[in-house]
Structures are given as C-alpha cells and as structure tokens.
TrEMBL record:
Family as reported in the entry's similarity comment: Belongs to the BluB family.
Gene3D superfamilies xrefs: NADH Oxidase
Pfam families: Nitroreductase (PF00881)
Subunit structure: Homooctamer.
EC number: 1.13.11.79
Entry GO MF terms: 5,6-dimethylbenzimidazole synthase activity; nucleotide binding; oxidoreductase activity, acting on paired donors, with incorporation or reduction of molecular oxygen
InterPro entries linked to this entry: BluB, Nitroreductase, Nitroreductase-like, Nitroreductase/BluB
Organism: Ruegeria marina
Name of the top EC class for this enzyme: oxidoreductase
Segments forming domain Nitroreductase: 21-184
Protein name per the record: 5,6-dimethylbenzimidazole synthase
One of the GO BP terms on file: cobalamin biosynthetic process
The entry's keywords: Cobalamin biosynthesis, Flavoprotein, FMN, NAD, NADP, Nucleotide-binding, Oxidoreductase
Catalytic activity reported: FMNH2 + O2 = dialurate + 5,6-dimethylbenzimidazole + D-erythrose 4-phosphate + H(+)
Length: 211
C-alpha cells in the first residue's frame, strides 16, 4: 500500500473548505456541468458505510411534476412548522428561507435502503439505524466535494417523508434521508445563515466530558 502524507498547505485548505461549507438556500439558476456533478457524486463511493453496505439510493428529481410535488410538500410542512411557533419566534421563522427548491438547478432525493443485503448485516444487527447514519456520512463527503468545486448544497428536511416517498414512487424499504438542492450559491460566508439571522448561535467551544 502506498504511504500518503498531506502538506501543511493542504491541511490549511481543508480547514478552509470545512469553514466555508454552508447550507445553501439561495442559488443562481445557472446550470451545473454534468462532469462536475458526476465527479462530486463519486464521493458516495468513497464514503464509509456499516458492513460496507453502501445503502444510499439517489433519485435525481428532474420532471416538473415531481419537482412541484416536492415543493408543495415542503410548503405544507413549512406552514405546519410555522404554526408550531408563536410570538417573536413565529415572526422570525416566517422570515427564514428554508429551501432553495425554486431556484436550484439540481434536485436530489437521497434514501437509505433499509433492506439491503449488501454487507450481510455486519454492524447493523443491534443498531439497524447505522445504515441511515452511513448515508449521512456519504452526504457529508458529497457536501465537501461540491464546495471544493464552488457548488452549494442545501438540505431540506421540512417535508412529509411518506408523501415524498409515494410521489417519487420508490420501493417501500427506502427511507428518506434528505431532499437536496444543489447549484451555484448566491453568496459565501464563514457564518451559518441561521446564525447571521439571529435564529441560533454556534457554541464557542466543544465540551467533551470524561468518564
Ligand atoms: C440533517 C439536516 C437537516 C437540515 C439541515 C441540516 C442537516 C444536517 N439544514 C441546514 C442547517 O440549518 C444548517 O446546517 C445549520 O444551520 C448550520 O449551518 P451551515 O450548514 O453550517 O451553513 C436545513 N436547513 C434548511 O434551511 N432547511 C432544512 O430543512 C434543513 N434541514
């Protein structure tokens, strides 16, 4: 096996990549080059997965009908979420933009195949949710790969997953992990939008307890 080391310069760049990764809700409508998208999607093949089960299943949502169904799903779930807040929080929530579905050129629905035989159940017998966590690890790599190309990703979870699963006509054993908007971001920042808009702040330091 080839020994590989990374330079200080690479480490600094990687740190910057992580700092500049944002959840993007504001996209330019310019198309994304298919070769660049394919290169970024390769991140899924590099991701860790429980038992090497590779349980991610990706649907590219292109038809007007499927996109409209997803958008309406979001709008309903978002209105329901807004109704769960009151006072200043409700006013603040109402002002947030929580998906870029109307502008993003690429839409992906990512699922976990809960019934896959791949991996022969290794690591998931007592904790089957590990398959879903595996999909999340892959999405994180994909997110960074996109950012390295200057592209942005927005995770949309304000959705009724069963309704989306039905609308996209996917197998019953597939569980929705997230709906993703992808494209060229309108802005870049080292600060999450929810922090900039005063919804929540990041903790100053990570507290690790010992036992
Ligand atoms: C599992 C999961 C699900 C969602 C999110 C993230 C993750 C990890 N986020 C994005 C989230 O708000 C964002 O990551 C944090 O606010 C931190 O900002 P940065 O990602 O650092 O820019 C998100 N954002 C949004 O506007 N609508 C959404 O439905 C969701 N859903």
């Amino acid at each position: 096996m080839r020994e590989h080391t990374f330079s200080d310069d690479f480490r600094a760049q990687f740190d910057l990549l992580m700092r500049l990764r944002r959840d993007v809700r504001r996209f330019r409508t310019d198309p994304v080059d298919e070769a660049v998208l394919a290169r970024c999607l390769d991140a899924f093949r590099l991701a860790p997965s429980v038992g090497l089960s590779e349980p991610w299943r990706i649907i590219r949502v292109t038809s007007a009908q499927a996109r409209t169904a997803a958008l309406e799903n979001f709008q309903t779930a978002n209105a329901d979420a807004l109704a769960g807040y009151s006072g200043d929080r409700a006013r603040q929530y109402g002002r947030l933009k929580l998906s870029g579905m109307q502008d993003a050129p690429v839409h992906l629905a990512v699922f976990c195949d809960d019934a896959t035989d791949q991996g022969h159940g290794l690591g998931a017998a007592t904790m089957p949710e590990m398959r879903r966590y595996s999909v999340v690890t892959a999405i994180t790599l994909f997110w960074l790969a996109l950012r390295a190309e200057g592209l942005g990703l927005g995770w949309v979870s304000i959705l009724d997953p069963d309704r989306l699963t039905r609308d996209l006509d996917v197998p019953a054993n597939w569980r929705l992990i997230g709906y993703f908007c992808l494209g060229w971001p309108d802005e870049t920042s080292e600060t999450p939008e929810l922090e900039r808009l005063g919804w929540e702040t990041r903790r100053p330091a990570m507290a690790i307890e010992t036992r």
